[in-house]
Amino acid sequence: MVSLQFITHQTDVYSYFESACMALEGGCKWIQLRMKDTPLQEVEAVALQLKPLCKEHNAILLLDDHVELAKKLEVDGVHLGKKDMPIDQARQILGEAFIIGGTANTFEDVLQHYHAGADYLGIGPFRFTTTKKNLSPVLGLEGYSSIISQMREANIELPVVAIGGITYEDIPDILRTGVNGIALSGSILRAENPVAETKRILDCY
Ligand SMILES: Cc1ncc(COP(=O)(O)OP(=O)(O)O)c(N)n1
Ligand SMILES: Cc1ncsc1CCOP(=O)(O)O
Ligand SMILES: [Mg+2]
């Protein structure tokens, strides 16, 4: 089964909460609640709805960006990028029991997150996507192969999920680069049946 992290998104059709519900119904065990440009109170309200549902489905719940809220709500962890709280600072606040993921686009980013104590890396973008503004340079398959081989040479063992514009068809080739898992949003939410698409993705490799 593919290790899949679903990133919530709001569309014309689905709310953030509904997007997560469909991924959970499809069997996804790892949800990141990502609600950009949303007041903290609204993020908190959705996280409070989602937490018991993730528990029911034995799924991990991470918050994008919000370290203090993750601590307050006792979710499983956070995902942090370059513009967010530094990972070592988040670790001091959250302790070892919380999962902390970090965004990387280069091997230098990987090194920085490794030394700061990240639990996993979200490396991307694989290709252009409209789900995130201000994208870093697109990596393609070559980018992942290069970063993974540099990690191996440096004996850096951290789980890596690929992210950014990934579809069902891309997954086998991406996993063959040595990446451990996939994070995605749009290709599930654009599918005619997002629950079925989640199942199809989980079973594709
Ligand atoms: C799994 C995963 N990888 C990368 C990101 C991007 O995080 P960040 O760079 O902080 O950008 P925003 O998502 O906050 O816009 C992610 N969220 N998840
Ligand atoms: C959060 C994030 N970080 C890099 S690309 C991306 C968006 C992923 O969503 P999609 O699968 O719709 O491209
Ligand atoms: Mg962020």
Give keywords.
single chain; 205 residues; alpha/beta; eight-stranded parallel β-barrel; 9 helices; 18% strand; globular
Describe this structure in words.
The protein is an alpha/beta fold and 205 residues long. The protein is 41% helix and 18% strand. The chain has a single domain (4-203), classed as TIM Barrel. It contains nine helices and eight strands. Strands 1-2-3-4-5-6-7-8 form an eight-stranded parallel barrel, surrounded by five helices. Helix 1 (16-25) packs parallel to helix 2 (40-56). It is globular, with a radius of gyration of 16 Å. The termini are close together. The mean pLDDT is 97. It binds ligand LCLJCK34, 4-methyl-5-hydroxyethylthiazole phosphate and magnesium ion. Ligand LCLJCK34 binds at residues 5, 32, 34, 36, 64-65, 79, 81, 84, 101, 103, 122, 124, 132, 161, 163, 183. 2-[(2R,5Z)-2-carboxy-4-methylthiazol-5(2H)-ylidene]ethyl phosphate binds at residues 129-131, 165. This is Thiamine-phosphate synthase.
Cα radius of gyration in angstroms? 16 Å
Query: Separation of termini?
Result: 6 Å
Number of domains: 1
- Average residue-wise pLDDT: 97
